[in-house]
Every structure is written in C-alpha cells, then in structure tokens.
Amino acid sequence: MTRVLVLNGPNLGRLGVREPEIYGHATLADLEKAAGEWGAGLDLDVEVRQTDDEGTLIGWLHEAVDTRSHVVLNPAAFTHYSYGMRDAAAQVSEAGLTLVEVHLSNPATRESFRHLSVVAGVATGTIAGFGFEGYRLALEAVASRVG
Questions:
Q1: pLDDT one-digit tens code per residue, 76-111
Q2: How many CB atoms are located within 10 Å of the residue 29 CB?
Q3: Catalytic residue selected from 25, 70, 83, 103
Q4: Residue in 23, 25, 70, 83 annotated catalytic
Q5: Is 23 considered catalytic here?
Q6: Handedness of CA 65, 71, 76, 81 (dihedral sign)
Q7: Which candidate among 38, 57, 124, 134 keeps its CA 20 to 30 Å from the CA of 140?
Q8: CA-to-CA distance for 30 and 111, rounded, in angstroms?
Q9: 124-134 CB burial, b ≥16 within 10 A, e <16
Q10: Nearest in space to 92 (alpha carbons), one of 68, 113, 112, 75
Q11: Residue 21, Cβ neighbours under 10 Å: how many?
C-alpha cells in the first residue's frame, strides 16, 4: 500500500473554531477521519499530522523522503515565507515523490501577502479554494500518479 503523509502547518489544529467563515466548521479530527476513508478507497495508507512548529514540519518532509512517502502539504502561513520548509519540500519532489500543496481557501483571492507561495515552484501541483475537498482531490492526484 502506498504511504501518504498529509502534513498541516500552523493554526490548522484550530480548524472548526478559527475563522470558520474562511476555513469551515470541520475540525482536524474530521479531516483525519475523512482522509483515512478517502485514502482507504484509493489504496493509500494515509497519516494526517499537524504542527505549529516549522522545524517539526521540515523534519516530517525529510522523513517522507527517507521513507519514500508521498506528501499532501498544507503549509498554512509557512507558505509565504518559510524557505527552509520550501527546501525540504523540494527534496520530496527531487526524490521522485508526489508533493501536492493544498490550501482550504484560495490565497490568490485574499490579502496580498498571501499571494506568494514559496512551495508552489517545487510542488507537483497545487489545489486551493475547495475546503476539505482539496485534500480528497490531492489524494486522488497522488493515487493517479502512483497507480
């Protein structure tokens, strides 16, 4: 079974309570459940993680390379400025693994500082603006590339 790490950055542990008009009412626990179900249907072994710590996220990206795991990444605020995370994400793609950048909202329609993604240039692809469905679409993209 193909392993996929679904990695989530800062403040995504507050899903359901932080700006629900933007990020929705579903929680991280809801995402974990849904992603597991979607993954099972696609013959993917999905593990959902969240951290507010940049170093932890970088370590998980290194782990993905070392364990040959594909990645669905919602870098959250790190999207716009974390070059350390971007360099770790590049290693995933350079290892021939799929890395899909996901955003619940569409950063291009929000504040101007959110328009730049330092990850987009090293990601296999980006899905934005579809809420939790973006994670399902990302897992389908991974499955189609490895299937």
A1: 999 988 999 999 999 999 999 999 999 998 887 676
A2: 11
A3: 103
A4: 23
A5: yes
A6: positive
A7: 57
A8: 27
A9: bebbbebebeb
A10: 68
A11: 7
